[in-house]
Amino acid sequence: MELLESFRSKYPFPLDDFQLEAIHAIESGQSVIVSAPTGAGKTLVAEFAIHAALAAGRRIVYTTPLKALSNQKFGDFTRAFGPDTPWQAELEASFPYVETEDQLRAIREVKTDMERARPMDRLICGDVGYGKTEVALRAAFKAVMEGTQVVVLVPTTILAQQHLHTFQARLAPYPVKVEMLSRFRSRAEAESILAQLAAGALDIVIGTHRLLQKDVHFKNLSLLIIDEEQRFGVTHKEQLKQMRTEVDVLTLTATPIPRTLYLSLTGVRDISTINTPPEERLPIITHSGPYNERVARQAILRELDRGGQVFFVHNRVQSIGVVRQKLERLIPQARLGVGHGQMDEHELSQVMDQFANGEIDILLCTSIIESGLDIPNANTLIVDRADTFGLAQLYQLRGRVGRGAARAYAYFFTDTRHRPTAEAHERLETIAEQTELGAGYSIAMRDLEMRGAGDILGRRQSGQIAAVGFHLYTRLLSEAVKRLRSEGRGPQPAASDFETRTSHLGLTTVDLPLPASLPSDYIADRRLRLQLYRRLADLTDESEVEAVGSELADRFGPLPRAVEDLIYQLKVKVRAGRAGVEAVSSDSGQIVITLPAAGKGDGRGLSGALPANLGPGVRVSKNRLWLARAASEGDWRAQLLEVLAKLGEAQTA
User: Is the whole-model pTM more than 0.90?
Assistant: First the structure.
């Protein structure tokens, strides 16, 4: 108590229950992790910790933001929301549709995260129109019922306007104030909204990048909802990372970018998937090929004849006027409107309202419609120069149609004067193939397979990450996440055990003249193949490799040659890793086993001398072993495993 009294004399500020609880824990010698909204008094708690450390003559070490992030993410000292209120049940009962099982599971997982004493960081991955917004709305209402504020961050002004209408309509019976902050608001309106946010008079604010500017302040922010996170740039994402250490974060997407998907697969971020389509939803008929004016005219007339509307996407503002003239000549009877991001905000808002109300037949627009726009009567999409769009963009654009019970059509045209690149052709081929309901997650997995996981920590790898390589780093990261999450749940494996199990395997390279793979004619599903590759890459024991080989034979039939070679190479990698071997490769018709250089000092070298008898035909050089490839392939394969086993025995002797 003397310590607290001396602190009060130095800092004569009132302390609330939250601060006193943290201070008493620090005073009793406990390790405390503090995470609370901006303005809740964390700085005063930190000042007390410094005061206590100086009084005890201790050294003070300031951690890096990354360390602080991991501590706060997995800590046990933060805001925890209470159980649902009666109004929450009333709001959910007013939902005009029947929730799917996946949607209900996602809602339960989000609520469970919010009621835990650690910040939520959950990704909701669901196809377009599958009910992600309803999950976010219920989470927002739960936060507001606790007297806190909610931010809904979206990439475009059009999507912000749509979310505003949705939230206001659903929350109209309740004392919840919802506003939008974007370029659709005048200066006076924006200043009024900012003042209400700072005073706590506004419960939910929906907006674009404008919400990330420095003049935006909150009184009691607790929940950040991000719609289509991949649309935000690197600078904005750094700001979002800072917010993740203090508030609950819920991210919505239909097609996460490879980096986000990989972080979810490795466990750094929690993920919920919504795969069940709404009732009466039909797959979208998709066509891709060179632009054909006759086909475009037929598609538009068919849609207009059944009373529907058409999106025509041309993603260049400079030439959108020329395309408008062509469409007016092609379909003179249609009511045509133009919308793009460089238009005056009031003019753009008016055009979008007219299209939503059915006053415009064809909306000629840029990719501004890509995110979240919901117009059930628009069921034909035509995309000009589709080869210039990314895979996720193509899928998001296709999601603008087919949101009702009517059959929808999507046409992805390429320029007849320019041949698409090989990568563009592959993207168009993928979008044309993936037409089944709920294909968003499959397309994201395909995007991950095509582009790789991305550079999570910037353009360059440095320090320890450069030393171990990206794939081993993500494996170590996955293990670290599991260990952090299981803290306090029983004894954990020592770090040395973990390193023994995995570090040698990640640093061992195997490159043999064998066609090792999982062929598409053996396992047709791309997503399943990718999952199996990840599972195989994580194997650390030879018995596990044999078990997976038996499982593949049981599930998919007899193993083809390529799969047998893959299983063999995994066995080689396991044995080589146990033996401390750096690489196993092929050179000039011989198998080469590369050992660590003498005096390397990384703990990977063979202990003691090499075994005396490594077998016939084995030649030893300074730090390499050479095995002659016999006439029979089976001979050198068996001999290689035998030599690696002997090296492993020498390593453990």
Answer: no
